[in-house]
Amino acid sequence: MQSGQSNISNATTVGNYLSLYLGQDQGVRLGESTVVSRKAHTRMPEKRIKGQIKILTNRDAGKTYLDFVDLDQVIHIDVYHKPGDIDPCDVAKSIFWSLDQHLLTEDPQLKYAEDERFRLVVACANKIFVTTNGGKGVLYDLFQEKIKPYSEGEEGWDHVHILARFNRDDYPLIYVISEAVEAAILGSDVTLAKVRNISHGKQKKTEENFAGYMKLPWKKFKGQNASQLPSKENVNQLVLKLAEKFGGVEEIEEWMECYSTNIFKRKGAEYQKKKWGDVEHYVEQLEELGLMKQGPAGRKLTKRGIKLHEYIIQHQCELETEIRRNMRKMPGGGASRFRKLGSTEHKSTHLEFTNYNRTINNSDKNWSGNLAVPETIIQAKKNSFLRGDQIFTLQKEDLHFYDKKSYVPVDICLLIDASGSMAGDKRQAACFLAEHLLLTGKEKVAVVTFQEHSSRVVVPFTRNQKLLTRGLSTINPAGLTPLASGIVTALELMQANRLRNPLLVLITDGIPNVPLWTMDAKADAITAAGQLEGTKISFICIGVESNRIYLEKLCNRAGGALYMVDDLNKDNLINIVRYEKKNMAHNF
Known about the structure:
This protein is α/β, with parallel strands linked by helices. The chain has helices spanning 4-22, 61-66, 88-106, 114-125, 139-143, 172-187, 231-246, 249-257, 269-276, 280-288, 303-314, 316-327, 373-387, 425-440, 465-472, 483-495, 521-530, 548-558, 570-585; strands spanning 28-30, 34-37, 39-43, 52-60, 75-80, 128-132, 135-138, 159-164, 197-201, 292-295, 298-301, 338-341, 351-360, 401-407, 412-417, 445-451, 454-462, 503-507, 538-544, 561-565.
């Protein structure tokens, strides 16, 4: 090992070196066994070129391994080794103490502030995910020997696989981590494997090839004699697949019109990307199905594609019913990653209703509910026989009443950041959340957006799904982030309606940059958030880690809670709002 000062110098040099290459989407080899990039890595077939690693330039590491929406958020570090078992806890401890020593050498004053130094190391450790052939987990969990099992086929079988949510300022730590991992491997009596060369290239996307199994009436399958399903059922299956990407029927229709034979109805690739994200895969699938083709003026619908478009318009009601059924499905609880800072302390009110599926027979309790006549007569008949009554009699002990249920209704207003950075998949996730909430609950939902220099009510409080869908289709992210205006508009909307346990949910990936009252956009937003204090409105914000410090101040001023997520995908959004609703249900 080198001296502390030299180690810092090396870390700084490597950090500058990585900033240059990673910023150009290039991978870098550190030493003989470590590969670093912001992309996925793959080994070239051993029989062709032994020890060569390929950097897949079209596969972002965060999106590939952690299902992130935002790109370039994760650093991917692979340290290759010869066959042997590597304990992930040993790796985690080696990294943890190396980070601790690095911070101490970088700032000797931390020697007298052990609690602060420990907090800094833990904060860094919680941004690092480690996988070896012995298990996996967040580095701080592994440091405490909390291991998740390794699954066959995962990354990490012949290398230590590390994902770190680092920004440019953290790049010097990559050198510290790679040295610590190599030391842990050698300490396990396992030999490091040499990476002889790295290359760069693209890998074909692994998105579902639904064109390969859909048996539409006009598609011929060579050598296949199986009878086809009814054409209507197959077309519906295709529309449901498109709905997973684009949302409702009206949005699918709008997307298909972008490839209309009428050039005046077309909208370019930039508009499509802003609204729906990357659509290239879906275009390729429709080409394979014979619904689109390349023409002199670009891709356009074929005659069959036009028929499909007409079919969607004609059967809109039926198709929307199927799409709603799919939207009601809850995401898996393990798919989301979030942490909560702060809390909401508003008391919730509940409603009671009669449960006609369950009856109660309790003669010691006074009931004022609905009498269950059939069950009461049956019970009285039995008891009359057991009592030896000469005639049929009805006693208090025979009475059956329908049980009562209670629930906490939560009317939700979604305050959605519609600035340019929310375009594509993040916009789709927020819109999906709005529809999911309306379809799975009994409460009203409203949507307010803020962008450019103002905010607007996209959807007033409603239980009407068509009204909601129509409003969501008008959201086209662009421009700046006038958060203060958004908070004020949402508050005015909520105070103008009679709501039950109102909840305001702010969804943003940025911080405000357009003021409302003064020249300070951030201060104005915090002032606007202060207007929520003293109201009966609960407030939560869903944001990304890079904006934590400011959003925490905003939530503290509003008396609400902050949920930090790795990115704003629909599973995270749905699970957070569901979690908050459960908390409110326990506070009545």
